Amino acid sequence: MNTRKVSAFLVLAFGISWTAAAMLYISGIEYGGITSTVLVVVFFMWAPAIAAIGVQLRYGDPIRRDTGFVRG
After folding, report:
1. Would you give the DSSP letter of residue 44?
2. C-alpha 14 chain-centroid distance
3. pTM above 0.85, yes or no
4. Which helix (H) or strand (E) holds 55?
5. Average pLDDT over residues 6-27
6. How far apart, in Å, do the first and last CA atoms of the chain sit?
7. CA distances from 64 to 15, 44, 61 (A)
């Protein structure tokens, strides 16, 4: 297991999520409304995927094969 890649993934995924949470908090959007639900889905659910793709690009590894985005 490549601990540098795992560490980079965790830092990036949590960084994206916490930055999105801070932006939602600063903007004053109430949790539980339709607006917050949409923004949570957009930012929080996609953060790990974006982090995985970013780490793969950073280390020069193939994205489709190493992240599991392949057919079959």
Report:
1. H
2. 7
3. no
4. helix 47-59
5. 92
6. 24
7. 23, 22, 9
pLDDT of residue 9: 94
CA neighbor of 14 nearest in space, from 56, 48, 55, 49: 48
Q: Which secondary structure element, helix H or strand E, spans residue 69, and what is its range?
A: none
Residue 40 to residue 38: CA distance in whole angstroms = 5
CA torsion through residues 32, 17, 43, 45, sign: negative
Can you give the length of the chain in residues?
72
The label of the residue with tokens 């999520």 reads 17
Residue 34 corresponds to which amino acid? I
The structure tokens listed for 67 are 């992240």
Rounded CA-CA distance 43/20 in Å is 6
